[in-house]
């Protein structure tokens, strides 16, 4: 029996060969959650998901145990840019991301808040206004999840307060369509100490945004030290976070229903490495469940 805290657990999987190829890769690692790019993440070229592709994707997904499908948007998008040309292009691209998610029936679209470049407050306003414009262009059910960042350079979103400020600026009617994605590597690098103050970090998240806003978790260890402001993912329990915070996450009842996705290094064999990382995470939940059962007996 799968422990409840690993009920929605998976990885970012490749779409090489087309989106319908992603679900079999998720199945190969026994994933129950899956994250994909719906286009090439480092190119501006946009595309629509045609009916045949959506049907093939849906059929492939039905052959898996995946119950939460997530997209991550393009790395080129910068809704906070002060450059009007780049910002307009970013809004168009972001709207296209939302259209593909709706066509494919993806529950969540994870997005990094942009880089403000000039003034932080102005960047927060531009980011929020760009999100509002795109959501108004593309009505639907996909929930946008603003991802916590490591705070490198002029990146927004390194604090829970900044994410809250972006959401608060949105029209009230759009706010239910926006949530948060917490990345363990990013928040640790940004100065949230999940290792020695796990409960404090979760409490601050709840106080600032509300745990109901937490819709996706990215589980990544970090190659760099605490508060490094650098975004460098490491294998689970093999970086500066170590095992403890992941064990806490996998046994935290408040997070049981939140999809958890790894974006850890793939090494030479993506399937083997991802399978090993997911089994490691499941073991944390399983060990806790077994211990609790023993105590009851």
UniProtKB/TrEMBL annotation:
<keyword id="KW-0227">DNA damage</keyword>
<dbReference type="GO" id="GO:0008081">
    <property type="term" value="F:phosphoric diester hydrolase activity"/>
</dbReference>
<feature type="binding site">
    <location>
        <position position="186"/>
    </location>
    <ligand>
        <name>Zn(2+) 3</name>
    </ligand>
</feature>
<dbReference type="GO" id="GO:0003677">
    <property type="term" value="F:DNA binding"/>
</dbReference>
<feature type="binding site">
    <location>
        <position position="231"/>
    </location>
    <ligand>
        <name>Zn(2+) 3</name>
    </ligand>
</feature>
<dbReference type="GO" id="GO:0003906">
    <property type="term" value="F:DNA-(apurinic or apyrimidinic site) endonuclease activity"/>
</dbReference>
<feature type="binding site">
    <location>
        <position position="147"/>
    </location>
    <ligand>
        <name>Zn(2+) 1</name>
    </ligand>
</feature>
<feature type="binding site">
    <location>
        <position position="218"/>
    </location>
    <ligand>
        <name>Zn(2+) 2</name>
    </ligand>
</feature>
<dbReference type="GO" id="GO:0008270">
    <property type="term" value="F:zinc ion binding"/>
</dbReference>
<dbReference type="InterPro" id="IPR001719">
    <property type="entry name" value="AP_endonuc_2"/>
</dbReference>
<comment type="similarity">
    <text>Belongs to the AP endonuclease 2 family.</text>
</comment>
<feature type="binding site">
    <location>
        <position position="147"/>
    </location>
    <ligand>
        <name>Zn(2+) 2</name>
    </ligand>
</feature>
<dbReference type="Pfam" id="PF01261">
    <property type="entry name" value="AP_endonuc_2"/>
</dbReference>
<protein>
    <recommendedName>
        <fullName>Probable endonuclease 4</fullName>
        <ecNumber>3.1.21.2</ecNumber>
    </recommendedName>
</protein>
<dbReference type="InterPro" id="IPR036237">
    <property type="entry name" value="Xyl_isomerase-like_sf"/>
</dbReference>
<dbReference type="GO" id="GO:0008833">
    <property type="term" value="F:deoxyribonuclease IV (phage-T4-induced) activity"/>
</dbReference>
<feature type="binding site">
    <location>
        <position position="233"/>
    </location>
    <ligand>
        <name>Zn(2+) 3</name>
    </ligand>
</feature>
<feature type="binding site">
    <location>
        <position position="263"/>
    </location>
    <ligand>
        <name>Zn(2+) 2</name>
    </ligand>
</feature>
<keyword id="KW-0378">Hydrolase</keyword>
<keyword id="KW-0234">DNA repair</keyword>
<feature type="binding site">
    <location>
        <position position="112"/>
    </location>
    <ligand>
        <name>Zn(2+) 1</name>
    </ligand>
</feature>
<dbReference type="InterPro" id="IPR013022">
    <property type="entry name" value="Xyl_isomerase-like_TIM-brl"/>
</dbReference>
<keyword id="KW-0479">Metal-binding</keyword>
<feature type="binding site">
    <location>
        <position position="72"/>
    </location>
    <ligand>
        <name>Zn(2+) 1</name>
    </ligand>
</feature>
<comment type="function">
    <text>Endonuclease IV plays a role in DNA repair. It cleaves phosphodiester bonds at apurinic or apyrimidinic (AP) sites, generating a 3'-hydroxyl group and a 5'-terminal sugar phosphate.</text>
</comment>
<dbReference type="InterPro" id="IPR018246">
    <property type="entry name" value="AP_endonuc_F2_Zn_BS"/>
</dbReference>
<keyword id="KW-0862">Zinc</keyword>
<dbReference type="GO" id="GO:0006284">
    <property type="term" value="P:base-excision repair"/>
</dbReference>
<keyword id="KW-0255">Endonuclease</keyword>
<keyword id="KW-0540">Nuclease</keyword>
<feature type="domain" description="Xylose isomerase-like TIM barrel">
    <location>
        <begin position="25"/>
        <end position="280"/>
    </location>
</feature>
<feature type="binding site">
    <location>
        <position position="183"/>
    </location>
    <ligand>
        <name>Zn(2+) 2</name>
    </ligand>
</feature>
């Amino acid at each position: 029996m799968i422990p409840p805290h690993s009920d929605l657990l998976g990885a970012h999987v490749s779409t090489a060969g087309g989106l319908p190829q992603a679900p079999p890769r998720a199945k190969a690692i026994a994933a129950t959650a899956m994250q994909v790019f719906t286009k090439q993440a480092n190119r501006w070229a946009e595309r629509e998901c045609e009916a045949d592709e959506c049907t093939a994707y849906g059929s492939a997904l039905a052959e898996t145990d995946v119950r939460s499908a997530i997209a991550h948007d393009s790395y080129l998008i910068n809704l906070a840019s002060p450059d009007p040309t780049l910002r307009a292009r970013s809004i168009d691209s972001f709207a296209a991301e939302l259209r593909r998610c709706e066509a494919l029936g993806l529950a969540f679209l994870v997005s990094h808040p942009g880089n403000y470049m000039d003034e932080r407050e102005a960047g927060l306003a531009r980011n929020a206004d760009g999100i509002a414009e795109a959501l108004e262009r593309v009505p639907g059910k996909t929930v946008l999840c603003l991802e916590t960042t490591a705070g490198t350079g002029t990146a927004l979103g390194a604090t829970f307060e900044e994410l809250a400020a972006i959401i608060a600026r949105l029209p009230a009617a759009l706010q239910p369509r926006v949530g948060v994605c917490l990345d363990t590597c990013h928040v640790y690098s940004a100065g949230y100490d999940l290792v020695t103050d796990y409960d404090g970090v979760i409490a601050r998240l709840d106080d600032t945004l509300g745990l109901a806003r937490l819709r996706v978790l990215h589980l990544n260890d970090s190659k760099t030290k605490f508060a490094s402001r650098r975004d460098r993912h490491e294998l689970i329990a093999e970086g500066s976070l170590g095992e403890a915070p992941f064990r806490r996450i996998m046994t935290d009842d408040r997070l049981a229903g939140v999809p958890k996705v790894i974006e850890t290094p793939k090494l030479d064999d993506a399937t083997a490495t991802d399978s090993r990382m997911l089994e490691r995470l499941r073991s944390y939940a399983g060990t806790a469940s077994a211990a609790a059962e023993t105590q009851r007996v």
